[in-house]
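To the wet lab folks,

You asked to see what we're planning to order before we commit. Fair enough. Below is the target structure as tokens, and below that is the sequence we designed to fit it. If anything looks off to you, flag it before the synthesis order goes out.
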């Protein structure tokens, strides 16, 4: 009887061990963050990653290199920063990414070359825009100023060429121009070269006065297969570092000091000394002139939907947001 009881006890013990749930290994968030591959275009978005310059997993590329990154399978980066319209279009085309945050809120300005006799932009004045009629500058310009200037619009390839037109007061064919739609920090550089030039309109304020909402530019997209814990931790740290830089711009100067001179310009797509100077300025809304900031995307869905509507895109679905 004692032997039988011993056998029964042993069987019960074995069964209880077998039914005990296996504890999953705790996810290592720090290791996950350290391995995340991040890609941003050169230019203003680099400012948000001033503390990641020496991170070997952080890469800065020209804007035209980003479209190919959305669908490169396992080789595609964990984080892509790009203008919000391009990111949303990529997701529509089945790119496996989610929208996490917006980190730039406008660095566009309309500048006068000093050639306009009455110093008031009216019908018949020539206006230089960069990109084409479907690009963001053209869309925003038409939203704010309408179609009165369409016959005199002059499109150039990029912000640098627009800045060159402001600096010289002439287009590529040597014809005088009156106004130029341009972005910081190229604006500041051009104003130094043309003493007659001045800022005519702060596009961020013009947009907000008209729409009641903030302008949206660069956004952070995170690959859908990244662990949720890692997504949240990444965005929290990004928010913290951006807010720290806004409160103390010297942090950006320190971070960007990793590279100097021509190498810095090649790495960042701008002269860091010039950008730090611009960052210290305020725009008409009281924000830094480079438009750097941080807002969780889902929290400003209304702003995003209003902005993409200006671009001719449809309202976003909550399914594409990191919540």
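Sequence we intend to order:
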């Amino acid at each position: 009887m004692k032997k039988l009881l011993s056998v029964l006890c042993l069987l019960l013990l074995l069964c209880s061990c077998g039914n005990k749930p296996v504890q999953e290994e705790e996810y290592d968030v720090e290791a996950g963050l350290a391995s995340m591959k991040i890609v941003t275009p050169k230019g203003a978005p680099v400012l948000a990653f001033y503390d990641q310059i020496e991170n070997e997993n952080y890469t800065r590329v020209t804007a035209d290199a980003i479209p190919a990154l959305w669908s490169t399978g396992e080789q595609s980066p964990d984080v892509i920063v790009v203008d919000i319209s391009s990111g949303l279009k990529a997701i529509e085309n089945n790119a496996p990414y989610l929208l996490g945050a917006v980190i730039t809120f406008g660095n566009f300005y309309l500048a006068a070359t000093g050639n306009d006799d009455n110093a008031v932009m009216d019908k018949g004045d020539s206006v230089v825009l960069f990109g084409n009629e479907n690009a963001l500058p053209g869309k925003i310009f038409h939203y704010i100023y309408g179609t009165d200037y369409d016959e005199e619009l002059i499109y150039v390839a990029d912000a640098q060429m627009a800045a060159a037109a402001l600096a010289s007061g002439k287009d590529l064919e040597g014809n005088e121009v009156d106004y130029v739609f341009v972005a910081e920090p190229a604006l500041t550089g051009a104003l130094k070269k043309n003493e007659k030039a001045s800022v005519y309109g702060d596009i961020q304020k013009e947009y907000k006065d008209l729409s009641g909402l903030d302008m949206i530019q660069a956004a952070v997209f995170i690959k859908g297969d990244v662990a949720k814990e890692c997504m949240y931790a990444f965005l929290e740290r990004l928010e913290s570092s951006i807010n720290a830089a806004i409160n103390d711009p010297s942090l950006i100067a320190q971070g960007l000091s990793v590279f100097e001179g021509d190498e810095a310009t090649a790495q960042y797509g701008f002269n860091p000394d010039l950008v730090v100077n611009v960052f210290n300025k305020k725009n008409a809304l009281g924000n830094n002139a480079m438009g750097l900031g941080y807002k969780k995307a889902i929290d400003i869905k209304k702003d995003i939907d209003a902005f993409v509507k200006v671009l001719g895109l449809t309202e976003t679905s909550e399914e594409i947001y990191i919540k």
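Structural context that might help your review: The chain is about 40% helix and 15% strand. Residues 1-23 have pLDDT under 50 and may be disordered.

Thanks,
Computational group
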